[in-house]
Structure formats: structure tokens, C-alpha cells
Amino acid sequence: MGTGEVELARVLIVEDDREIAELVAAYLTREGFAAAIVGSAEEAILECSGRMPELLLLDLGLPGADGLDLLRYFRERSTAPVIIVSARESDEDKVIGLGLGADDFVSKPFSPKVLAARVKAQLRRASYGSTGERVAFGSYVLDFEGKLLERRSGPSPERVPLSRREFELLSFLVANEGRTYGPEELYKAVWGLEHGDLSTVAVHVQRVRRKIEEEGSPPKWLVTVPGAGYRFLRDRKP
Ligand code: CA
Predict the structure, then answer these.
(1) Distance between CA atoms of residues 150 and 142, nearest Å
(2) Assigned CATH topology for domain 10-128
(3) Predicted confidence band at 18 (pLDDT cuts at 50, 70, 90)?
(4) Residue whose C-alpha is closest to residue 86's, from 9, 16, 35
(5) Does 201 score more than 60 pLDDT?
(6) How many angstroms is it from 225 CA to the middle of ligand 1?
(7) Where does residue 141 rank: exposed (0-12), middle (13-18), buried (19+ CB within 10 A)?
(8) What would the CATH number be for the domain defined by 132-232?
(9) DSSP H helical ranges for 18-158
(10) By mean pLDDT, which of 120-129, 181-190, 205-214 is the weakest?
(11) Which end of the chain is more exposed for a tag (fewer CB within 10 A), N or C?
């Protein structure tokens, strides 16, 4: 990128009605955003694999995969704002969408001007949080700077209570995502001690799992690597 070039916030419009999509794109461009249009969840995933947008405008009724599935996919990879723009006006969709981490919900038909204002408001809010790094996985957001873990299970995020050690253990594994650490290494890194009771590591892993993993299922995020230790992974190949 050349010097002096201003990088515009990129909005990805996922909408199968081309006319609506182009109208929205024209408004957003006029307001100073870079808008890209895709017509399905599949195309959106392809687009996101190139570069994650700063905001997602999401229609729920799409050909192929459902908009809510795309929302789930997106939330596992990004904390960027998501605005659902949908003709499906049922409260159920709204509740599910917000529960999956959508930030706002606009019903069709809508005024493009109002929608552009909502986009602006969301991007302004998102930029406040960008001073410290945050990592999203599933419906969780780990905030390194704020030293807290949030769960987006309803309209407003709720804080997941973690002890200081539990937070540090989770943060260490998230920050070193994909790498496996044995109990000794974790003990050194998180407890800062060379020697001690290593079983405390497994105890803390269990405690963290109780807070982030689904009960009764094998761990999805904080997994055991047999004979090696523990690893945190967001994007697991099936
Ligand atoms: Ca549609």
C-alpha cells in the first residue's frame, strides 16, 4: 500500500437480491466505505478467506447455506460487527441471530440511509475495542487487554467468570494457538515456576473447559494431545 493512501473500511454485503445489494453498495460507497457484494454464504466464505471484512451485512434468506450458518462461521473467526438485514422478521430469527453474535438487526424493507447510519455506528463502536487484541472463538470473545472472557449468548455479552490463573492459562494457549504444550511447559509459562505439583495444570485445564466447552461432549477448543499435552485451536479441520 502506497503512502498517503487511505484504507477504507471494507463492508461485505451478502445479499442474493442484486438490486438491493447494489443500492446498499452505492450508499455505502458514497459514505466513504469500500463495499463488496456476494450472493451466497458460499461466496462470502471464499471472499472472507482472502480478507476479512471490517463489517458484514447479512441477509438471512440465501440460496444454498443459510445466513445463520454463515454468521456462525464468521463469528468463529472475527469480532467484526455483523448487521443482519432480513425480510425474515420473526422474533426467533432475531433472537438466534443476536445469540450467535450479530450486533444489529434491520428489517426489510429498509431505508438505505438508515442502514448506512447503522453501519457507521457499528464501525465506530468496533474501533473503540481495537486498541487491545481480542480473539473470538464460537460465541466467546477473549479480551487480552481487558483481561476478560465474554460470551455472546444473548442480546448483550455476558462475562464468564475466570480466576486469574484460569484466564492466564487460556490466554497463553490462545495466544499460542495451534501449538501443543506439556504440563511442565504450561507450569513454567503460566505459574512461572520451575518445580511444583504439575497436577494443578490438569486441574486448571478442567476448570477452564467447564467454562468454555459444551458439557458432555469432547472438548472442541482446548484439546488434549495424547502423550504431549494441551492445545488450543479455533479452526479445526473435520
Ligand atoms: Ca434473500
Answers:
(1) 6
(2) Rossmann fold (3.40.50)
(3) very high
(4) 16
(5) yes
(6) 43
(7) buried
(8) 1.10.10.10
(9) 18-30, 41-50, 67-75, 91-99, 112-128
(10) 120-129
(11) C
C-alpha cell at 40: 451466497
pLDDT digits (tens, 9 = 90+) for 163-180: 988 998 998 888 778 888
pTM of the model: 0.54
Question: Helices H, strands E: what count in the chain?
Answer: 8, 11
Domain spans of the chain, in order of start: 10-128, 132-232
Residues 183 and 198 sit within 8 Å (Cβ to Cβ): yes
CA of 10 to the centre of ligand 1 (A): 21
Ligand 1 centre from 16 Cα, in Å? 5
Query: How far does residue 119's CA lie from ligand 1's centre (Å)?
Result: 19
Per-residue pLDDT band at 109 (split at 50, 70, 90): confident
Lowest mean pLDDT among 28-32, 222-226, 231-235: 231-235
Residue 136 contacts residue 78 (beta carbons within 8 Å)? yes
Measure 118 CA to ligand 1 centroid, in angstroms: 20
What percent of the chain has a predicted confidence (pLDDT) above 90?
A: 45
Torsion over CA: 113, 119, 121, 127 (sign) = negative
